[in-house]
Write a structure and sequence with these properties.
The chain has 392 residues and is of the alpha/beta class. It has 16 helices and twelve strands.
Length: 392
Amino acid sequence: MVIKKTNLSRKTDEELKSLVVKGIEDLVNLCSYLLFPISLQCYFEESIKNWLSQKVKDPKFKDNYFKILTTPSKQNSGYFEQVAILKLAILYNENRGIKNKIDDYLLEFDTLGVKYGVGELWNKKEVVERIKYLSKQSPKKRLYHILSILKQADDKVEITLKKLNADKNFRKFIVITRLYVYLRTYRTDIISGAFANMFPLFKEIGKRNALNLRSVIECLPNEIISFNFPDKKTITERAKTNIIRGVDGKLYFAFGEKAIKVHKKLLKNVNQKVIKKKVKITENKEIKGVIANKGIVKGFVKIVLDNTGLKKISEGDILVSSMTTPDFVPAMEKASAFITDEGGILCHAAIVSREMQKPCIIGTGSATSILKDGDLVEVNANQGLVKILKKK
């Protein structure tokens, strides 16, 4: 926030360099927290599933109890962003002035358009388009549903624990699990947001060195701090292919053809192949996955591998991705259902699908490889099946 409110054009080169150093140090500290929460997810999920298996025989009830007990105990930036923009859509319908409120909204939420440095800060034009779209989607009803989620979740958790006669230890475990679900998304919000907050700083540095924002981001920290940038051809090559490897406490960086060779050598040395999980397609041309939120819809597939492809989503499309993140929300608002390759019941797509009340199937394995843009499919999230009706 501090950088956003600073007139960077008045800063000297040395002052800009100092801001970069401080920003990078903070990012490094944040990133140490990036990976370890993922390693805990399987433990939490399996522990709760095993406990439920001892208490509940019916798979349908067991799945429902699991979803209830793994709701986040707090809401993250994506939730508050949804609340904020729905309020703006309501004001828009009431013909009340929202110009200044849009500025406040962007000051708080524009960084959600960026995921680990990929993407762009949301701008006023995009927000106005979203407000106009949401104004026609019963914003008051949607806002009421979202605001009731946390209270309903707490009540359902308590009712479920009582019904299943949960002891004191398991109750404590659920408290920790629900906090973990919150922190799982919070960590990515903070890290991505911290990096995105530096975009105005990088943009100003680029302006002084005849580079655009994206070119500065492709440079190494020491190059940015010293204003000693490589030529534009090198920067372009880096953007295409690069690899960073940590060995004995040191980082090694390569790009272009050298990066490709290093990657192939690494794979050969460890005798591994990058193989996606095989998707089982039934005789009826159905892809199986895990139910995240129930419902049945038909629509045309749009494959989105990262936030650069979000704009191709039109109203009613089926959003298919390896996984979703908070920057996907504007496209998820338009999509009628979500399908992902990865993710457990605690993942972003699962949580957002419940907030938006849209069908969602996760953990399909390689739906992004099997399905293609324009395929007509039926998403049966009541049974965890994606039926291919017509290939493009």
